[in-house]
Design a protein that fits this description.
Layout lengths: L5 E6 L2 E6 L3 H10 L4 H11 L7 H28 L4 H7 L2 H12 L15 H8 L10 H20 L1 H11 L5 E2 L3 E6 L7 E7 L3 E6 L14 E6 L2 H16 L3 H10 L13 H5 L10
Antiparallel strand pairs: 1-2, 3-6, 4-5, 6-7
Helix pairs in contact: 2-3, 2-9, 3-4, 3-7, 3-8, 3-9, 5-7, 6-7
Length: about 290
């Protein structure tokens, strides 16, 4: 197998080399197989159940598919930025903590390894890059780009929220959460010591789940049992799923980056001699380089 069969990529800050006879073909086939309608199907299916006796189950289902959609969205974003020439490899190798670390750096406009951005990473620049080849005839370009950038920023907050991540893990690993929202009220005392409760807020939908943070960061074996309660509106979640799906429809713009990158010098390294530094040398971006 020759070196021309290799694809060099970086996942967050970790280099990888992929070998195969038809890597370009498999990469494009994997992108074509992305099914954005999967998320719309679940949104349409479960939102109809929010007024029935199965409302709580439907709300949790919407919450779960939205969390799945957000993770899948930013996985595509990571692949687009760091491995547009071989997104399949990036999607196969990324870990949850790497994805969140990458999104956190973009959210803070911090330097990252990249292959396609024209400047420091921001959600606005990412939106412009993704929509680079759109036909803007009769379309408000700036409004469209701003909408995409806002969507990235809002959903990034969801991905990076520790409580939301714990909730998602509780749902997908054994349905450990308790469905339903909560309310908060205070009691107004009177002179006869019999006051009424005044409701401050709350909601019908949400979840309650257990957490087990370490007693001390340096402690490996000691944890403190606690609970977290969250309220959220399933209708709002259902409305966001089509917006996330819209970005999935643009996923094939990664294909357009392939010939553009192949025109640049490639890293040609025998397998037995590949090093982290040699692989990263093919990336113009990175910590300390922007």
């Amino acid at each position: 197998m020759t070196n021309k069969a290799a694809k060099h990529i970086v996942v967050y800050e970790e280099p990888h080399v992929f070998w195969g006879h038809n890597l370009d073909y498999e990469n494009l086939e994997s992108l074509k197989s992305i099914d954005a309608d999967y998320f719309r199907y679940h949104a349409d299916l479960h939102v109809e159940q929010l007024t029935t006796d199965a409302a709580q189950h439907a709300a949790i289902a919407l919450r779960t598919v939205y969390s799945q959609a957000v993770e899948a969205l930013f996985a595509l974003v990571g692949a687009f930025i760091q491995a547009p020439h071989f997104a399949l490899g990036w999607l196969l190798k990324y870990r949850d903590e790497q994805l969140r670390a990458l999104v956190r750096k973009i959210d803070a406009a911090e330097p990252i390894y990249h292959r396609i951005l024209a400047g420091p990473p921001t959600w606005s620049l990412l939106a412009q890059t993704i929509l680079e080849n759109v036909d803007w005839d009769g379309v408000d370009r700036e409004r469209y780009i701003t909408g995409f950038a806002d969507l990235f920023q809002w959903t990034a907050r969801d991905l990076l929220s520790e409580d939301r991540q714990r909730e998602y893990n509780s749902i997908k690993h054994g349905i450990r959460q308790r469905s339903g929202g909560f309310s908060l009220a205070i009691r107004i005392h009177s002179s006869n010591n019999q006051g009424d409760y005044r409701r401050l807020g709350g909601g019908r939908f949400g979840s309650r789940f257990y957490i087990a943070p370490k007693v001390k960061r340096s402690s490996k074996y000691h944890s403190l049992l606690g609970t977290v309660s969250l309220n959220w509106e399933p209708d709002a979640i259902a409305a966001r799923i089509p917006e996330v799906r819209c970005v999935f429809e643009r996923a094939r713009i990664i294909e357009g980056a392939v010939p553009r990158l192949e025109a640049k010098p490639t890293v040609d390294i025998p397998v037995q001699l590949s090093t982290r530094e040699e692989i990263l040398d093919g990336y113009p971006g990175g910590p300390g380089s922007l």
